[in-house]
Amino acid sequence: MRDLTYSYGDTVALRNVSMRIAKGQKATLLGANGAGKSTLFLHFNGILRPRSGEVLFDGRPLSYKAKDLSAVRQRVAVVLQNPDDQIFSSTVEEDIAFGPMNLGLPRSEVDERVAEALALTGMTAMRERSTQQLSFGQRKRVAIAGALAMRPQVLVMDEPTAGLDATWWARSWN
Amino acid sequence: MLAIDEVANASPARSWPPLGKLMLALALLIASLASSSLVAPLIVLIIGMALLSYSTAFRFPRIITLAILDGLAVVAVGALIIAVVTPGAPMYSLPLGPWAIVLTDAGVDRAVLVLLRSLAGISVMLFFATSTPIPHLAHAMRSLRLPREISELVILVYRYTFLVLEQSERMFIAAQCRLGTRGLKNSLRTFSRIAVGMFTHSIDTAERAQTALYCRDFRGDFPSYREPAPLNAIWILVPVSSFLTLFLADRVLLSGVVL
Prior knowledge:
The structure holds two protein chains of two kinds. By secondary structure, chain A is α+β, with helices and mostly antiparallel strands.
């Protein structure tokens, strides 16, 4: 991104931010509370549109037309800080399948992606559980699984380890 | 909290076609309402309780049990009022000083009919609610070609009702930790603050939900991962024949002996 600036009303949240993340690179963004990290992440898939500056993906500036945004969101998945914002379905597997089904994929591929995401997040045994009955950490893993099921090229995670126990904290980094 | 959707997901009747179940529930409900004798509501009540027993083994979440009991209390009070205010030959009189509460024969008959119809209606609709998970209901709505905005609203309202309930519980516990419910004055102030807090929190939640939906390529529809069984001829035949049987039984009884 180049010289990105964003404000909420009169409050400037991001001012002239420029950064580059190379393909295959893992990057961690550290900052104080209210520094604008979450706001920045929502620019990566075009949820927020900069007041000035631009966001580039694969070397090309993001287009904010609905069709182009849909294409970007298939390739750039964002896991939100609070899993409750992200989980809509009543069961774990329904929620993980939400993204792949939105893509209109064949049933067999949806099944494969759901099984893979469940395995990666250790939620296979809970696939038919009600999402309302999960702990915060488990909901967090469902939220991550939902993003992984999209098989994105870029995975953006906001506070990815918040609410996870030590085992899953370490696993999420790997 | 054990949610109604969890009961529905565990129900052995979950795999039945949701449209078929809805048609059956409506057919029984209409047959019960259309009858003039006690037979049809009584049969519908027995069918409803049998279906409910099969669907849930009468294992309800506490909050749902309270809601049912609350509804039953309203129905019982309503039936009692009908028994008292309907004119007819007096059956029983309870003197209250210069006044008296008089139950009439016509009033009691009508009250019993209303009570039975209400109980029958509650039992069949509870059977539907406890055997049909919300995604199945949304799927049924789509099958009926209802606007997708309606099924979208049903799913979002269902999901966020529980989140708002959980949030209000957390706020209440936090208030208790800081003596927010110590005394009536403090309690009233706390409840009003929680109400205001919930309002602003709901707006905030709605905004974040919209962001999350767009992050997951939402296209205005909630697809079903596990689609319920489709409607078939049997599930059309059963509701229609149930309705006709009850309706004819009622007419035959009316032309002969009325219960």
